[in-house]
Structure formats: structure tokens, C-alpha cells
Amino acid sequence: MEDWTLRPARDLELAGADRHRSYDRESGLVANVARFAWWTMIRASLKLMHRLEIHGRENLPDFPSFVLVANHASHLDALVLGATLPLKLRDQLFPLAAGDVFFHTPALAAFSATVLNALPVWRKKVGAHAIQQLRSRLINEPSIYILFPEGGRTRDGSMRPFKSGIGMMTA
Q: What backbone torsions phi and psi does residue 147 show, to the nearest 5 degrees?
């Protein structure tokens, strides 16, 4: 076990909206409590209303960092994948979400960052620098990413080609 060290938050100098959209964002007490309540409610809802059954959880690594990769048929996908994780891993969960959808207004960015703990991926302008920042967080901190390599959903549920750059982040 590592010794505890005091260090300033990486996002200390960022204003609210910029902090929510930052890859260097750090969680505080309010965000952790909100996320715990959210995932407890989502998991209960999925079990009771959708009869979610989880099989194969033993195949997941016991400790982060790792990436959960899945096809993307619904906005429920990330919620279902997140609900499958044991409670001890949920604070390290970062769904990668479309920035133009989940971070385009300050209120939505605050919800996505605080409650979902999502990190934005700007689909139209994602560059090597953004991929490197995501990769660095995955390597240097215990992190679990939920990643949809198709970059979006289709109306008929068919698979789309994978977006380029995904391999650079996970390799």
C-alpha cells in the first residue's frame, strides 16, 4: 500500500465549466456521494424493472486500470456496463461520452462530470493530444474506461466501423 501524500488538485486552476470538461478533473466529496447514490439507484432500477442479470463478472480484473469495450446500441449501454462493476471499482469508472452530446451545455456538463463521471470525447475534433491525455490517465491512475469504438449508435443496431485512434489509447 502506498503512503498517503498531500498534493494540490490538478484541476485547481480551472473554472467550473472547464473543470467539468477536463481530463484532469478530480472528484470531491459531493461528486462521490452523488455518484454512489446514482449507481445504487441505477443498479436497483436495472435489476427490478429490466431484470438485469450479471454473468461473468469474475472475468473482470480485480483492480483497475482496464477498458470495457462494447458495441453501442442504446444510451443504456454505459449504465448497464457500469452497474455490472462491483462497488469498490465504481469510483474509478469513467465512461467516455460524446462531448457534443453530454458536455455541450454547462448544466449537462456538470451532470455528466459529477454524477456519471464521464470524460468527454469530442468526436469532430478529437486529436492525438486528447487521446494521449486519456491514455496517460489510464496508465497513471486506477481507471476503468467504458469505450464504444464505433463512436455512436445506429438506428437498426448494426455494427459501424471502429473509429481510428482507439488502438492508440489502449495499446
A: -130, 135
Rounded-to-integer distance, Cα 152 and Cα 20, Å: 22
Phi, psi of 94 (to 5 degrees): -130, 95
- Report domain extents, the chain: 16-170
For residues 7 and 49, give the distance between their C-alpha atoms in angstroms, rounded to a whole number. Answer: 43
pLDDT in tens, 87-104: 888 889 999 998 889 999
Residue 92 to residue 106: CA distance in whole angstroms = 23
Which residues face 93 on adjacent strands? 144
Task: Output the pTM of the full model.
Answer: 0.85
119-121, strands of its sheet edge to edge:
66-69, 144-147, 93-98, 119-121
Residues with Cβ within 8 Å of residue 15, at least 6 apart in sequence = none
